[in-house]
Amino acid sequence: MRCKYTPGAAAVSTPSTAATPGAAGPTGPVPRPARQPEPAELAGPSTREPAAAELAQLAARTAGDLLVSPARVRLADVVPAPQRVESDPAEDWLLPADAVVLASDDPAALAVAQQLAELLRPATGYPLPVAGAARPAPAGGIALVLTDDQPDGSSAEGYRLSVTRAGVTITAGTATGLFHGVQTLRQLLPSAIESLTPVAEQWVLPGGTVTDRPRFPYRGAMLDVARHFFAVEDVLRVVDHLARYKLNHLHLHLTDDQGWRIAVDTWPRLTTTGGTTEVGDGPGGYYTKADYRRIVSYAAAQHITVVPEVDLPGHTNAALVAYPELAPDKVAPPPYTGTEVGFSYVDPADERTYDFVTDVLGELAALTPGPWLHIGGDEAFKVKGEVYTGFVERAQRIVADTGKTVVGWHQLAPAAHVDGRVLQWWGTTNEDPTTLDAVRRGARLIVSPGNHSYLDMKYTADTPIGHDWAGLIDVRKAYDWDPGTHVTDVPESAVLGVEAPLWTESVTSLAEIEFMLLPRLPAIAELGWSPRATHDWAGFRDRLAGHGQRWATAGITFHPAPEIPWPADQSGTAAASTSRPIPTQTGPDGVPAPSA
Ligand code: TNX
C-alpha cells in the first residue's frame, strides 16, 4: 500500500512493509541499528503545521531506522536489460533523508547530479543537496564519479552502478554514462518515486553491481509533428520518455503534405502559410527557431540528439501551397489535410528548387548541434528513376556542404554513396538487394522495420487509433526481432542502430502519443541497448510489468497490453489508468483521471 501526503495532511502513516518488525519478506528484513527519534521530531514543530515534505521525511526516517525491508525491485529488473547484473541482497541500502549527492567536480557531472536530485526530491521530500568533490565517495549517500578508468573500457555511454550498505556509486567515463546510470537507479527505487508529492516509503535500493553499456550507438524514436502538430511541451515529455529507456536520438519529422513545422527565415511562408494546416480540421502550428532550440537543448540535457527531417522531394504539398514556384506546374495546389501519400513533389528540373533545399537545410544545420540531417526521400512516387536519383544525390551533397551527415529513408539506396551516409530501413520484409548494395558501397543502417517498430500500427484489431498496413504490432511483435541480423546479409557492423517511428495521421494528443509509445517503446529500446544474450520475451514481459505502476504514478498514459503481467494488487491508480484505453485528462497529482 502506498500512502500519499497532501499539503496540510494531519496524520502520518508508515508503509505496511515497515510497520511490523519481523514481518520478513522472502529474503528477510535487513536489521539496522535503531535510532531513537528525537522528541522534537515526534512532536513536530509546535508553532506551525508541518509541511508535507517534513512529515514524509520524519515518517521515513523513523520507519527506516527501525527496519529496512528487502528492496522491492530486483537489481535484474531494469529495462533495457543491463549487460551484467550481480545481485547482493545483503547490501540492500536505504536512502536516508539526509543523503547528499556528490559528483566529480565537472560541470556536466554536476548537472547529472542535479537532475538525479530533482528526480528524487518530489516523492521523497528529502533535500538531497548536491556538491562537487575531487574524489566523490558515497559516504551514506550517492556518488557520481567521472573517471578515465572505465569499468568496461571503451563505451562512451557505459556506466557501473554499485549499491552497498555504504551508499550508491555510479561510475562512468562520460556524463552521458552517468545519466544512463541515473535512469537505472531511478528504476531500482519503489515505483512511488514517480509521485509528484511526498510519499512515506522506504526508499530501498537492491544491493549489488550493474555493469552496463549499449549494443548500438543509435537508439531513437521518431515523432511526426507534421500530420498533427504537437506543442513544444508535448515534445519535451516525449524526450523524457526516451531518456527513461536510454534512447539517445529524437527524430522529428518536421515537414509533410499536411504541414510545414519549422521556421525558415529565407522562406517565411513555409510556416506562415504551410504551417496552418494538419490532418483533419485542426489549426496546425509550427516551431519558431527559439522553440526548436528549446527542444534541442532540453533533449541535449537528457543526452538526446535531435535528428531533424525535411522530407524531399515528395511529401511537400504544404511547401508547394506556400511557394507555388517549387511546384512542377508552378500552380499552388490546395492545402491537403487528408492521409494519402505520394502525390506531391518539388520540381526536380528547376534550379530554384535547389536554392530552396540549400536555404532550408542550411538554416536547419545552423540550428542543429547534432551531426545528422534527415532528408526523407520516401514515397516520391512521381519522381522516378534517374530523376529521383539525381535529385537525391544533389540533396546529399547539399547536406555534406553544411558539414552534417545525411540520413534518409532506404529509398535513397540507389543514389551514390557520400561519406557517412545512413539509410533508415522501414521495409516489412527482410530482403532488399538495393539496400544491401548501398551498404556494400558504405552506407550504414538505422533499422525501423514497419512490421515491428512502427508505433503507429495498432496493437490489436480493436485499437482505437493507428494503422495496420504493416500488420498489428503487439508488445511481443515489437520485441521479437533482432536489429543486428534483421536485413539479410547486412552485417551487424553496418547497423548503426534502431528507431521506433510514430506517424501521427490518427494521433492527436500527448495522451495518444503515450498510448502508442508505451509499452512498446521500452521493447525497441531494449533491442537497441541490451546484449542479444539477454533477449528473452518471458523475462522482458516480467521486468516491464513493474513499469505500469511507475507510469500511472507519473500520470503517463499507456496501453494496458494484455500480454504483460501487470501486478493486480497495486494501488488503484494503476487500475484506473489501465481500465480504459486513452485517458485524455489527468487528475490533480498527475494520475490519469477515472473514466468519465
Ligand atoms: C509510410 S514510413 C510513410 C509515412 C506514413 C506512414 C504511416 C515512411 C517513410 N513513410 O508517410 O505516415 O507510412 O504508417
What would you say this structure looks like, in words?
The protein has 596 residues and is α/β, with parallel strands linked by helices. Helices cover 31% and strands 16% of the residues. It is built from 19 helices and 23 strands. The strands form 6 sheets. Strands 14-15-18-19-20-21-22-23 form an 8-stranded parallel beta barrel, surrounded by 7 helices. A 7-stranded mixed β-sheet has the order 4-13-9-10-8-6-7, with helices on one face. Strands 1-11 form a two-stranded antiparallel ribbon. β19, α11 (385-401) and β20 form a beta-alpha-beta unit. α6 (232-244) runs parallel beside α8 and α10 runs parallel beside α11 (385-401). It is elongated. The structure holds ligand TNX.
Q: Can you give me a brief rundown of this structure?
A:
The protein is an alpha/beta fold and 596 residues long.
Q: Mean of the pLDDT scores?
A: 88
Unreliable stretches (pLDDT < 50, length at least 5) are: 1-48, 570-581, 583-596
Task: Report helical residue fraction.
Answer: 25-40%
Q: What is the alpha-carbon Rg in Å?
A: 25 Å
Portion in beta strands:
15-25%
Small ligands present: ligand TNX
Shape: elongated
Total count of helical runs of at least 4 residues: 19
Distance between the termini: 26 Å
Biggest β-sheet, characterized?
8 strands, parallel, barrel
The neighbouring-strand order within the major sheet is 14-15-18-19-20-21-22-23
How many β-strands, per DSSP?
23
Structural class, by secondary structure, is alpha/beta
